[in-house]
Request: fold
Amino acid sequence: MKLVHILCFIVITFCWIWMLPLLILGAICSIPLAILTLTISIIISLTLQWWFHGQIIPNNILRRWFSYCPWHEWFPCNTISISETSVVAVHPHGVLCCGALAGIHFVPESQTVFCVAPILFFVPVLGWCVRALGCIPARYDIMLLALQKGHSLIVVPGGVPELVMTEVGDDYKTFERSGFIRLAQEAQVPIQSVFVKGECQTYHMWKAPFHNKRVYLSWKLNIPLVFPCFRGWYGSWLPKRIPLVLKTQRIESTTKQEYYSYLKRLQQET
Reply:
């Protein structure tokens, strides 16, 4: 046998005899470290939530850094500047709310705050990042506080149920809600209704059965009952480069029926 063959034989034998036991031993020894790390992360996350509870951070350096990147050019899409304190209601939800993020929130000089699921703030590291990026928990009291402080509030009224409805790929289907209308009335601010044409085409979702029942259950449980497989640009997790068109209309205090009538007309004009 040549020397190279002997060396290969030694390496293969070592891996066969010793590698598996070493891997098992390493896994066993790493369990206490993993438990300790998880415990510390949870404590830090809960402490930060208590410390920053109710705080609104619209202009953190992390958000400014994000805003320097021209996200809207990826699709591309037009941008909307919000000049007065208002509730910015964006339709539809889609998978990532690409139009709301790239066309309104992450644009230079924007001072909007974005309402997201409260559970995100309890995820270690991520919870701090989303707050630094100008997000707040989608809780009525904190949302009202943000409006009273003069911040424009981005909400996606369709929420979790509309994420399930994205499977169909129809931008014109909406899950009607009225909480954001009551919020605008209590804060005495107008609503900026925004329709994003192309939002539901940024990802391809697997169409699961029992669609209407899953939409209803997702609304009740506030959990998206969808098959967790989203294919974007060339099958990746990046959104597809679908041109998005954002169109907005200012709406004063109104009822739920009147608001969605305005929205349907806005959709037809886009």
